[in-house]
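Appendix B, Record 12. Input sequence as logged:
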Amino acid sequence: MIKVLIIDDSAVVRETLSKVLSSDPAIEVIATAADPLIALKKMELAEPDVITLDIEMPHMDGITFLKQLMEEKPTPVVICSSMAEDGSFNAMKAMEYGAVDIIQKPKLGTKQFIEESHILICDTVKAAALTTSRIKAHHRRAATADINSVIQKDLQLHTKDDNIETTNKVIVVGASTGGTEALRIFLEKLPVNSPGIVIVQHMPEHFTKSFAERLDDLCKIHVAEAKDGDSVIKGSALIAPGNRHTLLKRSGARYYVEVKDGPLVSRHRPSVDVLFRSAAHYAGKNAVGVIMTGMGDDGSKGMLEMHEAGSYNIAQDKDSCVVFGMPAEAIKTGAVDCILPLDDIADEVIRKTLL
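Logged structural output:
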C-alpha cells in the first residue's frame, strides 16, 4: 500500500482527493492537513510514502514547505495546484526543489475535475512512490548551481546567435513522468554547437514556458517554448507548449516546427507519437530519437516509424527511469538502437551527430 498525506487548505479538495485516491486498492490515505504546519505534526505520527501538496496555503506556502522537507526529510511530492497560469513560476520552482510531478487543478470546478481525473491522479501518485530512492540525489543536484555551465553559456552567447544555418541532423525527444529532471540532466551536457532539438514533455498548459526559461538559465544551449513556425537551429531546443501538438516540418533545407491544436493522440496533447512520426517523415535518417522516463506507451509507435525511416533511436534504461513505461514500450517494438543510463544519453547523441 502506498501511504499518502494530502495537504490542501480546501476542505472540499481534501475530501474529494481522499475519496479518489482511496478508491485505488494500491493507495491508502493516512492523513489530510489544511496547511503544512498541521501536516508536520501528522507526519510525526505516520510517515507518508507520497505527499500531495497545494502551493498557496495559510501559515506556510507549499514552496517553502517543500524546500524545508527536501532538506530535512526528502519525500516524493506531487504538486496539486490551481496556480498554473498566474503561479507557474512557483510551480516550476517546486520542480526545482524536487517535486516529482504536477497535477493542474482548474480555478473553477475543482471537485468535478478531481473526480473525472481519478485515473490520472492515482497513476501520478503511484509513479511518485517509485521515486523514493532518487529524491535525495535529485535534491543534491538542485541545491548546487552549476556555475561552470552558467559562465560557459555567457561566453558562448555570440556563437549561439551566429549558428542559425540549418543542420544535417535533428534531435527529437519524448518524456513524461520524471522527465523534467531527466531533460535537465540531458540538456545541460549538450554543447552550443549541438543539432537543433525538439522536445515533447507531458506537462500542463502554462507550465512549459517557465520550464523552458529555467532550462535556458541552466544550459549552454538556448531553450525556449516552441512557437508555430520557429526554426530548429544549432544550439537550441524547442519545448512543445502544454496542450498543443508540436510537429517537425521541413522546407527545403530548413527544419521548423508546427504548433497546432488537435485531438488527444496516445491519450496526450502534446503527444510524443505526433512529434516522432513527423520526424520520421521529414527528417528520416537525419534524425536521432530519444525516449525517456514516463508512464504509458506514447512515443512507441512514432519511434518505430522513425526506425523504419532510418533514424537512430536511444531509450533511457530501466534503472535510471522514474517510470520505465514509455522506453520499455518502444524497446518492445524493436525501434530502439541503444539503451543507456540517463547520464550517458547526451554523450551518445553527441557521438552520433557531431563526431
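Confidence is low (pLDDT under 50) at residues 138-167.
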